[in-house]
Design brief:
The protein has 344 residues and is mostly helical. Helices cover 65% and strands 0% of the residues.
Length: 344
């Protein structure tokens, strides 16, 4: 079967790259450093793109139907969400190039970016909790797996928000417990014990949730997604925001999983654009592809403009909760109507 061959080839290429990282480049799985543009690493990037392309195209189902007839750009919430995401990314790339001091200041501890990220995660958690109770009170919805999953996602976002602000440590001004003094920032949080691995898992997990799972559903691979959970699959708008989040990469550019996520987001958006029935949506998705490629080139090319190489991750950690916020609003709208199909 052709799809199986593409899938096997994509997996094999990624494994080869990963082995080269470990044994030839002596690079750990989530080791961060400045982007490397020497010939071996350029060839490595080509291999990662090929891996992402083959794996995603392997799940392309030509027999699947085109996307729904309604235009996702018709809804006001969708247009506002996409405008915020695009403007935020355009402004952050502009600041990096022309005012890197402000770019860095906005990404510091206790900055507006950090608190906004935490606030969005809190709000997303709260909205999902309200959605859970809406589903719970619905006599027509007996799907306990869906209800439990909504609760799990809400709890996960609550943990993300609390970790982002170190469980209110700096706000309430309490000392770090002795057991937590050995973490990277000597703060009361868990993720700084293994910062790179936790961040990498969070970023790549967002790529899987925001982009890969919806892509499988669009291509009618429903046997890979529990039927009772189909209502939790993110919409196309959330997919686009997820693709924007994959673009905030500089110090993690050399990490194979991060490059794979970036290339994967481009390929997924391209494949989806071919299924769009509306010309406007098709052109918009292709505009987004060009936009994120250009912005990613800016982020990796202006290395000397970073005052702290990792400051860009704070911008990524804003975009991911923003995606969850739009996702939560869509799910809540569905819960109010007592059905489980997201509307955004």
């Amino acid at each position: 079967m052709k799809n199986k061959k593409l899938f096997a080839a994509g997996i094999l290429i990624f494994i080869v790259v990963f082995c080269f990282d470990c044994f030839h480049f002596e690079q750990m799985a989530f080791q961060d450093n400045a982007p490397n543009f020497t010939l071996p690493f350029i060839l490595r990037s080509v291999a990662l793109f090929l891996s992402a392309y083959l794996l995603i195209v392997a799940f392309e189902n030509k027999a699947s139907k085109d996307l729904e007839k309604d235009s996702f750009l018709e809804r006001k919430l969708n247009r506002v969400a996409l405008a915020i995401g695009i403007v935020f990314m355009a402004c952050s790339s502009y600041l990096l190039v022309f005012n890197n001091a402000v770019f860095d200041a906005l990404a510091k501890e206790d900055s507006i970016i950090e608190y906004s990220s935490a606030l969005l995660a809190f709000l997303s958690s709260a909205i999902l909790l309200f959605s859970y109770f809406k589903f719970l009170r619905s006599s027509s919805n007996k799907n306990m797996l869906l209800k439990g999953s909504v609760l799990v996602i809400a709890f996960g976002l609550f943990l993300i928000a609390m970790e982002e602000i170190s469980w209110f440590q700096r706000i309430l001004d309490y000392k770090t417990p002795e057991a937590f003094m050995s973490n990277k920032q000597r703060e009361f949080n868990l993720h700084n014990f293994q910062t790179n691995y936790v961040e990498g898992a969070y970023y790549f997990g967002a790529f899987i949730f925001f982009l890969c799972i919806p892509y499988l559903k669009i291509n009618s691979f429903k046997f890979l997604i529990n039927k009772r959970l189909e209502g939790l699959v993110p919409s196309r708008v959330v997919m686009i925001i997820g693709a924007l989040s994959c673009t905030y990469t500089y110090d993690m550019w050399n990490i194979a999983f991060m490059q794979f996520a970036f290339y994967g987001s481009i390929v997924i958006l391209w494949q989806i654009s071919k299924k769009e029935l509306h010309k406007r949506e098709r052109l918009f998705l292709r505009f987004i592809i060009i936009f994120i490629i250009l912005v990613q080139l800016i982020f990796v090319s202006f290395g000397t403009h970073y005052i702290r190489s990792w400051s860009i991750t704070e911008y990524r950690e804003f975009m991911i909760p923003f995606g969850f916020f739009i996702y939560a609003l869509g799910l809540y709208a569905s819960a109010k109507k007592h059905h489980i199909k997201p509307i955004v």
